[in-house]
Each structure stands twice: as structure tokens, then as C-alpha cells.
Amino acid sequence: MPVALVESLDREGRGVAHADGKAVFIPGALPGERVEYAVAKSKASYDAGTLTRTLRASAARVEPRCPYFGTCGGCAIQHLEPAAQVAAKQRVLEDAFRHVGKVRAETMLAPIHGPAWGYRHRARLSARYVPKKGGALVGFRERRSTYVADMHSCEVLPPAVSALIGPLRALVERLSIRDRIPQIEVAVGDEIVVLVLRILAPLAGADEAEIRSFADAHRVQLWLQPAGPASAHPFHPLDAPPLGYALPEYGVRIGFLPADFTQVNHAVNAMLVRRAMQLLAPRPGERVLDLFCGLGNFALPIARLGARVTGIEGNAGLVERARENARASGLGAAAEFTVGDLFDAATCARLPACDAILVDPPREGAIEVVKALGESGPGRIVYVACDPATLARDAGVLVHVKGYRLAAAGVANMFPHTAHVESVALFERH
């Protein structure tokens, strides 16, 4: 068997080594380890390996807490100590800046991190009725597979939600449409847990009674989704409190629907908002744009600090709920929200003048926004990113073409035990 020294982790949490001039990707291997591996797939530029033996273990290697780790695809690096996970993610960000954007942050910020367990406040659980495995399965999919992991708990879900996996399996088994329920969406707010059952066939009367009984017994609200996301609607109880989370530091509450985008980690999100406000430093009298504003997660704190903020978002439903959140927090006069396609060059060319921009795009990044900035562009840009590669790409344009400097950057461990890298960066005019 070949032997390799693992150098780093890739964006999927696999160990990266080099042998015979090619990169070798080895799931389960950690930086600094000397490992034995078997070649599972060989390509011209890389090999995919399977870890067969660890000859010299990393000091940061730990015993995974979850009994399903390695089978379940929800986590990739539970075998790496949490502080080392954060350090690895910071290196991913630095490498992306260096190799993709050809830039370097003047200051690397201290990483943001919070609870390592029980943090995941939203999740999409798959459901399958598999008689050969004893009945219904509810959980995340197996690693690199469409099969549902045979699990009864989840260490990254809040304990109360993890405890529902077994009862949910039993509920699905009791329903007449047990083989027509492909997924269960989980959304956790400060006051309520909502479960959205995706149903591909109508419920029978007995099914409805079972679902009501489940909701009452476990003090959750059940929604039904018979078609696309827009078809999701509350089923029982109808008088449950609405979903929402608070940002007490800024005196705002963000209300949302189960299918709306929210950060999965409420504790880290609150710290990320604080970091973004420190970097952006909005002042009374300033005009700020919040691009890809979603529900107002950053816009409302900006408004609370005294600036006039305009949020722009492509999803009309999110825009309407952002307006509602602004009104409910007493910020309706300071924060306005509008629908706009920020992937469209013409839309970005018409963005209003401002003193500062906060941008929080999806994985595709904000390249059209960046390209549209002119010589009179804002003095400060805070960029919150869920993909280090697209952040680095856009940083390259901002620094090498648009005249900004990358003043500071750092990571936020939004998804502990996964390879996901959330980051924030500050760009300033020279």
C-alpha cells in the first residue's frame, strides 16, 4: 500500500497529500498525519484514496462523538478537534485569497466560533420507507450516497430535535402514505420548532389524526408541503407562535417562514452580525446598501446604529418579510427594502450612491455587483461569504481593478464538523 504525508484539508474535509506528482484526496486523514491508503480512483491529475491505516496520528485527532459518523454524510470532520477545525478553515480562506484572487488580507481577524454541538437550527432530513431495514428511516443521507442513514439521533441538531428522530420514524411508519414522504424540513425558532412534511399524496383522515397527535405530544408545529416550497402551509396547531430569532444586542427580531434562508447557527450568526457591524461601522446620516439582504439580518442592525439602509434582494417573499421585520422592530422609517436581481449587470449598474455596502451573496458570489462599482464607489465594503473561492475571486477584482485594499478578513465556524467555510472581509478605498 502507498504511504503519504497529509498536508491539508480540502473543501470537502478530505486529507490532501501528493504522490508521483499528483494530488491524493484521502477522506478521514488529517493534516500532519502519515497514512497508508489504497487508490480508489485514479485520474490524470489526482487520485482518490481510501484510508487503510494511520501510521502517525495528528495530536488534534479525537474520537467522533456521533456513532453514525463515517456513514452519515451530515458531518465530515468530527474526528478533528474543534479548534483545529477552525484553524483549517482559516487556512482554506488564506489559500483561496492567495491562489484565486492573488490578494492577501492586511489583518487576519480572530476566528468566530460558538457551540460545537446542538447548533443546527435548520435541516432537511430525508425520509424513506425501507421494509428490509425494519421500516421508516429519517435522517441525513449517507456519505456520497442517496441512501438515508439508519440513525436515531444527531449530535449537531438541538437535543430536543435530535430526540424527535425516533418518534418521526415511528410516525412515518404509521401513515398510509409512508412511501410518499421524501423529506422533512426542520426549522427552529426561539419559541417553536416547525417540521414540514413533504407529501406526494393526500393524507387520509387517520393520517391527519396521527399528525395532530404527534404535534401535541412533542409540542411542535407540523406543516404540510404537497408541491413546491410555496405550497407549504401550517397544519397543526394553527395557533403556534411564529418562527423567529432575536438579535438582542440591536433590539431586533427576525421573523421567518420554514423555507426561508436563515443561518443555521443562531449563536454564531449573532457574533457574525456583531463582527460585520464593527467592520462596517455605520454612522448616523450615512447611506448604506445591504445587498442580498434576505430577511434583514444585517440591515436592521445597520438601521439601529443610525444609518439609512436600503436592502436589495431577489426573492420577493423575503423582501416582504424584511419589511415586516423592520416595522415590528420600529425601524420602518430607517430601513427600506426592494426587489432586485443582483446577478444582472444592468440592475447592478443602477445601484444608488452610498457611503458603505454590506454584501452577503449565495455561493455564486457578487461578481456583477463588484464589476459595477465605479470611481465614486463606497469607501467601505463588508463582504460576508459562504464560499471562499468566490469571495477570493471578487476580492481580486476589488483590489486589482477597483482600487480597494483588503483591510481584514477571517472565518466564522458556522457549521462545526463540516468543511463549510463562512467568512467575512473588509475592503476599503486606498
Query: How many individual β-strands?
Result: 22
Count structural domains. Answer: 3
Mean pLDDT: 96
CATH class of the largest domain: Alpha Beta
Q: Indicate the overall shape.
A: flat
Low-confidence stretches: none
Description of the molecule:
This protein is α/β, with parallel strands linked by helices and 430 residues long. It folds into three domains: 3-61, OB fold (Dihydrolipoamide Acetyltransferase, E2P); 87-115 and 261-429, 3-Layer(aba) Sandwich (Rossmann fold), CATH 3.40.50; 122-188 and 192-236, OB fold (Dihydrolipoamide Acetyltransferase, E2P) (Beta Barrel), CATH 2.40.50.1070. 25% of the residues lie in helices and 29% in strands. The chain has ten helices and 22 strands. It has helices at residues 82-101, 159-162, 165-174, 205-218, 266-280, 299-304, 316-328, 345-349, 367-372, 388-400; strands spanning 3-5, 8-9, 15-19, 22-26, 34-42, 46-56, 107-108, 122-130, 135-139, 183-188, 193-198, 221-225, 233-236, 244-247, 252-255, 287-291, 308-313, 335-339, 356-359, 380-385, 404-412, 422-429. Strand 5 (34-42) and strand 6 form a beta hairpin. The protein is flat and about 65 Å long. The model has no long low-confidence stretch (mean pLDDT 96).
Question: Could you outline the blueprint of secondary structure elements for this entry?
Answer:
Layout: E1 3-5, E2 8-9, E3 15-19, E4 22-26, E5 34-42, E6 46-56, H1 82-101, E7 107-108, E8 122-130, E9 135-139, H2 159-162, H3 165-174, E10 183-188, E11 193-198, H4 205-218, E12 221-225, E13 233-236, E14 244-247, E15 252-255, H5 266-280, E16 287-291, H6 299-304, E17 308-313, H7 316-328, E18 335-339, H8 345-349, E19 356-359, H9 367-372, E20 380-385, H10 388-400, E21 404-412, E22 422-429
Parallel strand pairs: 4-6, 7-21, 11-12, 16-17, 16-19, 17-18, 19-20
Antiparallel strand pairs: 1-5, 2-3, 3-4, 5-6, 8-9, 8-10, 10-11, 12-13, 14-15, 20-22, 21-22
Helix pairs in contact: 1-10
